[in-house]
Amino acid sequence: MAEPSDGKQRDESLDLPGRHIGQPFRRVDGRAKVTGTTRFADDLHFPRLCHLKLVRSTLPHARIKAIDFSSAADVPGYLGSLTGRQMPHPFGILPVSEDEHALCIEKVRYVGDPVAAVAATSEEAAYEAALRVEVEYEPLDTIDGIDTALAADLDRIHDYGDGNNIHKKVSMRFGDLEAGFAEADLELEDTLFYEGNTHLAMEQHATVAVAEDEDRVTVYSSTQTPHYVHRALAKVLELPPSRIRVIACSNGGGFGGKSDVFNHEIVAAKMALELGRPVRITLNREEIFYCHRGRHPTLMHLRTGFKKDGSMTAQHLRTALDGGAYGSYGVASTYYTGALQTVTYDLPRYRFDGVRCFTNKPPCGPKRGHGTPQPRFGFEVHLDKAAEKLGIDPADLRLRNLAEPGSVTANWLQLGTIGLRRCIEAVVAGSGWRERYGRLPHGRGLGLACGSYLCGAGLPIYWNHMPQSGVQLKLDRSGGVAVFCGEAEIGQGSDSVLAAVVAEVLGIDLADIRLCVADTDLTPVDLGSYSSRVTLMVGHAAHQAAERARKLIAQAVAKRLEVPRERLIFAERRVFDAADPEKGLSFEDAVTVAEAKWGTLGTTGSYIPPRAPGKYRGAGVGPSPTYSYSAAVVEVEVDPETGLYRPDHVWIAHDIGRSINPVLVLGQVEGSVYMGLGEAMMEEQAFRALPRHLSSALVHKTPSLLEYKSPTFHDMPPVTSYLIEDPDPQGPFGAKEVGQGPLLPVPPALANAIYDAVGVRIDQVPIQPQMILKALDEKSRGRQARYGPKVFPEVDFGEILRVLTPAEGGDGHALNEHGEKKAHGMSGADGTMSSRDEALKDKDGAVTTK
Amino acid sequence: MAERTTTLELLINGESRVVAFPTHHTLLEVLREECGLTGTKHGCELGECGTCAVLVDGQPVLSCLVLAAQMSGREIETVEGLQEGNRLHPLQQTFADLNAAQCGYCTPGILMTAKALLADNAHPTRDDIREALSGTLCRCTGYHKILQAVEGAAQLAAGEEWTPAADSLHGATPPDRGSE
Amino acid sequence: MLRLPPFDFYTPGSLAEVIELLAGEGPETRVVAGGTDLWPNMKRRHQKAERVVSLMAIPELAGIEGHNGELRLGSTTILDDIVRSREITERFPALARAVASISSPPLRYMGTIGGNICVDTRCTYYNQTEEWRRSIDYCMKEEGTICWVAPSSPRCWAHSASDSAPILCALGARVEMVSKRGDRILPLTDFYRDDGIDYLDKAPDEVVARILIPSDSDSARCGSSFWKLRRRGSIDFAVLSVAAAVWTDDGNRVTDARIYLGAVGSRPLPVAGLADCLEGRLLSEETISEAAALARKTATPMDNTDFQAQWRGVMAARYTEAALREIAGLDPRGLPPQHLL
After folding, report:
1. Is residue C61 over pLDDT 60?
2. Fewest 10 Å CB contacts: which of A249, A299, A503, C51?
3. Residue A4, preceding bond cis, omega within 30 degrees?
């Protein structure tokens, strides 16, 4: 068995014109999606299907005293119930924070926390029965935000973490910060806030579980991560993974919102096994606001030193995250609010302190951009202010500070190609920035910002030595190629990437390919559709599998045609001699020859990202095979009398490396701009506390599609998108990610544009009209022309992890890191992957699945 | 007298069928659950997202907010009836080609609403399209490809040639870089 | 999915049958027209019904007709038909504008004018699912005892949510109701009560049959305007609307002016003191500013819908100014809302 691909050995493929790669083609699932035949989880039907409903907590924080199903059982059609005691094992997406139960056992931690479940023959009966379940609670203190969470002497939501209601504290310093600030000509400080918001996929999460034997179950679900659902089910159901099959149906949108394992998925499987019949649960819209796992509300403080020429000497970033009631991806989210600050611009010295709090709200987690849109907003607004103070054009300030391609950052991230210069140049030219910025009439303005993002997280969320992505091919005399891969299509087009890569290498049509994806019984593991990993990792695995198939076929055909193998070309559904194109076989005949020579044909491909240079605790968050870059200019019109504003146009450029399919890339770019504008303008996962003396309630303010404001057709301005292509050797055919990166520059570009329009700084999102009005009023009174948070809370971040930068001659390790937690992959698995190298060295210790 | 169960002949996509259902069930429930026509999706069941739009007598209607019991003698059209034989309707073609359906979940409602628009207005402006579709939320596309796809379908439906604009397939070219 | 609870459903074919069905009935029997308000409310269980009587199979209730200059709008006239009616767009353009701004296009193909003037008052503590309302122990409008918007208040502050009501009030419309007990016609302004719960002067056995708009309010005699504030360009309810109607004499002096504010009170709120402010004067920058200040005083925006309440008060003044400027032929200034583009 050959080594998994490390993505390095295919430089020649980068610049070849593709038959599929680089061409706009109809997505392979396009027809199904426009004919209504795509089957989402809620569309499945099975004989004797029954319906599940979760009973959710009506209190934000309480001890469960008793649960009474007697009245529920009277509902005609009632079939059965479950409580948490029947599923005692905890689960959670990160090994370090397995703090969830399928149904709460001792405590409920937010309004909406599932506490019991009922099944009935119809969804209506299940709903009626659920309403009749009586739960007796003993209320506990309500923790409603960061400040309350930091306070001592309140009831703790969890009994683990870093004290009080603090889940996680992180503090690390790369380089001699004070020396950096001492060199600075300008030191700038800013406090900013990014409100929480949610994914709001149009499809409501659904799961169907089918019992196939007393100890065997198949689970169909709207999930981005069937592999992790599989693992959690095995753990909670106490079944060998081989008895559980998880199939991710096409997702009606994900955006990170379906990448955790959810209570309803586990409960449905358990109920199916209990009842011996298929069970469906489709959440209603309100329940999806409770599943959440969306953007963490984040308070930020930045302090940066600049030289007169605009170069940065040091930065200290502090973040405080309101994590909600459970861990979710939160430890990783916390690190992510700091990890990618160094990837865009040259930042020679850097310190990051982060704290994540537990609060009695639905858990936050990964939403498009995972943990990075918040500090990106902070950084890019901060830079806009610096540019003004330094008298440098904001575009030039960024151009002067671009990170060096191929360099290693202060926090030990290995950068790849960087197309940001061309991105900035494109939006500057497109928007007429040079002629118009700072010169538009009062009330109209332009704002610019940039961003960068991972192309797949360098490490899996649980340590192991196995590939992060696997692909298998089956070829036979029909000439058709079946492609098996665990990747999950969530609308982003991953199926099309998979098919295109295989078709390209084998020189066949997309129609010759049959996909089988996201089925844990039938497809090799792919970790899922998150962290913008699919194009890169699945692409590499598919490429390797297809290359291996091509080699087998070529050997057989070379012999048959008596042509040197190297001269064979795979194109136009033929395999032929480059020197004599007439001499060749149809692809079908070529496979037949190969099948005769080798027997039944099958190949595999897999991918493991390259090792990252950082070795310190926490270095596992941030590494990626390469990074994508984006720049955006927003033009806005602001009414100074009302604070109402309207973005009129967005220019965005994205460094895609190379498009696999440009029309899909554009879809991601435009969709990211949309989502970024939604977050910047109106979207809020906000909560309402009632007057304390009357009630301890803490409820979601707007758990509906009407009141959670998501931009409509009328609210979306025209977008001009530029795809900047500069193939990256780390990407398959040179490709980078596009699903998340283009969101990042949009919120700060809007805030910067509002400043250009009316001269006030709004240092938080979403930007509400009354904030602009208030800031204008402050300005007219001669006070600071700004709206935003004023203070960052006092937090003792504990001992700082001290790491020398590459420039200081560091080796990637921390100076003050002790030996604990290094011995075994899993035992040290705090989800932050302190030392993957250690885990990899000690192969025996790194048993990873359970 | 009011019956808690209704038996009705429904005319769906030109085919009539007799369906029995609880009287309080909406057209959405009956289409998906009694008729097996799961192409019609749902995002809120409260009339807030437009996902479940179908055509009733040619008008877009939210199937979550009408009772199936009121559909006697009405002509119902769903996404399953949009194809012409095994050929895609122009809207389906352009939506598929331009990636105007990403996750595809809001797509059936949008396609049906767009069909009603084109029946009413063969050459809609971009603003006409925006307004007609403004009752449907999409979280994937940012709406641009949808607008372009409806424009393309209007051309195809009018018997004109449709070639997608280069920038809708490849992105725009920055002005100072020429046609690099 | 959210589903309706079971109920008895009636679709009578004549008004006489409806009246008979409703005779003696209480609040557990409800009338439905387009269903765009009642069905969501019933799905969330904050409106309940044992029996539901549909008006949609009664031909005599639908339609737009002129009668001696008076415009008679049948209560089940579909909103989109109003928007498309030349008679209405020409004679009562502000009404057409208001109706065209209701929710989103599919809702306007379904909803009716009668349903819109009766639309339930709204509040973020109320328009929620059963489970959510349990989490706050309900509110005064349904099941509970406290108005969470103003906990010390003895009344409910749910806000009026109709887009057509403010302009119909300004235009002096009357509403005709029928019941077994007899028919009655009352000014629309009297149809509404300043209470979030008991917001309509309508008994459960009464049916809104028609809305009557006087010829005096025809655009030939009356200048009118409608401005609506909402977060998004579609779908959303108003969080503020301003409906203005102004009558002037030959010298352009105001003889009568009415401004009603929507969504900032439990009924369309008449701007108080407007007569003293405007009558006998020209609509000028100065008088318009004074009227706008009165609107600001009249509005009682509460923290029970989208946008900050205080800012909605600011916008009441701004949109009053814009509406009056538009009537006066002045540039309304600022960023126009989507429904005016």
Report:
1. yes
2. C51
3. no
Bridge partners of A206? A282
In whole angstroms, what is the distance from residue A804 CA to residue A789 CA?
33
**To probe the interface with A, which of C123, C148, C335 has the most A CB atoms within 10 Å?**
C335
A832 DSSP assignment: S
Q: Are C105 and B132 in contact (CB under 8 A)?
A: yes
- The fraction of chain B above a pLDDT of 90, given in percent, is 94
Query: Which residues of chain A make contact with B146, given a CB cutoff of 8 A?
Result: 713
Domain segments of chain C: what residues?
59-118+159-217, 223-340
Query: For chain B, which residues make up each domain, given as ranges?
Result: 5-81, 90-165
Taking an 8 Å cut-off on Cβ atoms, the answer to whether B134 and A713 are in contact is yes
Mean predicted confidence (pLDDT) in C134-157: 96
Q: Is B130–A37 a contact, with Cβ atoms under 8 angstroms apart? A: no
Separation in Å, CA of A457 to nearest CA in chain C: 36
Answer whether residue A821 shows pLDDT above 80: no
Q: Which two tokens stand for residue C287?
A: 């008088």
Contacts of A437 (CB under 8 A, 6+ apart): A393, A394, A395, A446, A448, A756
Give the pLDDT score at A152. 84
Q: Is residue A17 part of a domain?
A: yes
pLDDT tens profile A239-294: 999 999 999 999 999 999 999 999 999 999 999 999 999 999 999 999 999 999 99
Q: Which fold has domain C223-340?
A: Enolase-like; domain 1 (3.30.390)
Q: Which residues, in sequence order, are CB contacts of B1 under 8 Å at separation 6+?
A: none
DSSP state of B33: I
Beta-strand pair A786-787/A761-762: parallel
Q: Name which of A712, A715, A714, A689 is nearest A700 in CA terms.
A: A689
> Chain C within 8 Å of A643 (Cβ-Cβ)?
yes
**Chain A residue numbers touching B40 (CB-CB < 8 A):** 36
Q: What is the DSSP string of A536-580?
A: HHHHHHHHHHHHHHHHHHHHHHHHHHT--GGGEEEETTEEEESS-
Q: Residue A705: which of B44, B140, B176 has the nearest Cβ?
A: B44
Q: Please tell me the pTM assigned to this model.
A: 0.96
Q: Which CATH architecture has domain B90-165?
A: Orthogonal Bundle (1.10)
Q: Answer yes or no: do B62 and C234 touch at CB < 8 A.
A: no
Q: Hey, are the CB atoms on A32 and B136 less than 8 Å from each other? A: no
Contact C234 A713 (CB under 8 A): yes
Would you tell me which residues 363-402 of chain A have a C-beta closer than 8 angstroms to some C-beta of chain B? none
pLDDT of A750-761, one tens digit each?
Answer: 999 999 999 999
The Cβ-side half-sphere exposure at A381, using a 13 Å CA radius, reads: 34
In chain C, which residues have their Cβ closer than 8 Å to the Cβ of B8?
A: none
pLDDT band at B175 (very low <50, low <70, confident <90, very high): confident
A286/C132 touch (CB, cutoff 8 Å), yes or no:
yes
Per CB-CB distance under 8 Å, the chain A contacts of B177 are 425-426, 429
> Domain B5-81 belongs to what architecture?
Roll (3.10)
The percentage of residues in chain A with a pLDDT greater than 90, rounded to a whole number, is 93
Interface touch B172/A722, C-beta < 8 Å: yes
CATH number of the domain that A71 lies in?
3.90.1170.50
In degrees and rounded to multiples of 5, residue A114 shows phi and psi of -70, 130
Judged by CB atoms closer than 8 Å, whether chains meet at A642 and C318 is answered as yes
Say yes or no: B22 contacts chain C, CB-CB below 8 A. yes
Question: A306 has which bridge partners?
Answer: A186, A312
How far does CA A485 lie from the centroid of its chain? 20
Judging contacts by C-beta atoms under 8 Å, the chain C residues touching residue B53 are 106
- For the stretch A57-76, pLDDT in tens is 999 999 999 999 999 999 99
DSSP tag of C3:
-
**Cβ atoms of residues B128 and B69 within 8 Å:** no
